[in-house]
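[Meeting: bench + compute handoff]

Bench side (C.D.) handed over the final construct sequence. Compute side (W.E.) agreed to return the predicted structure before the next meeting so the bench team could plan truncations. Sequence as handed over:
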Amino acid sequence: MEEYSLEDYKNVIILKNQLLTMDIYQLKALYQDYETYLLFLDTISVLISIDCGFLFLRDDIISKIEQIIQYNRFEADSDTFQIINEMIQYFNTIQNYSPNRKKILTSSYLAYQEDIRKMKLKDMNDLFQAIAFDANVIVALEQNTMDFLSDNRYFLSSFNYMIESIPELFENSSCDLLQEKLHSIEVRPWPFDRDSRQSLKKAEEHFKKKKKRKIIFLLFSYFLIGGLLWKRK
């Protein structure tokens, strides 16, 4: 699989939020400038590669994408125009999937999201809310504050999702900010808030495992480099 940058992953998260929460008129206003239109195309390309299951969640998602693609299509250069045509062909193909196949893909995607987010999703709308909330966490990291992230349930969902799918977020100052937010979450003791308590526990365990793996990797690298330097002497 092609490697993508941290910015690519962030852009995908933001775009998924937009596709779930904005109507087509808002999206057209957002991407009417040609430079932002090219960013849209690039992000859609990444989305197809790393998270194509998202496209099957709602019928209007592909419809919105196709309308934006058509918006500046004939202003594109030949290479970009070719990419656009390939995207259109791809969307035509998956839209012709049978209802049963789409249902299976959607069910698999829901199960995957529950597993990676370490939470039980109530219904599809709950999944939409969880996916949309991911963008709030990205914005919070950009602004270097978690103060406006008041929904701890969705924060834990996003935390678990990102530590697994975008570990690069946990390799800089963002790690401290996310860890601080995680440690600030309080839940009522048993028998109250059972789901929230389990979700928080899983998030903390998940974080500790990732941190432990990173320490082991750094120690291994240190001794490996040390051994190579010793052989050179």
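W.E. noted at the follow-up: Confidence is low (pLDDT under 50) at residues 213-233. C.D. will use this when planning the next construct.
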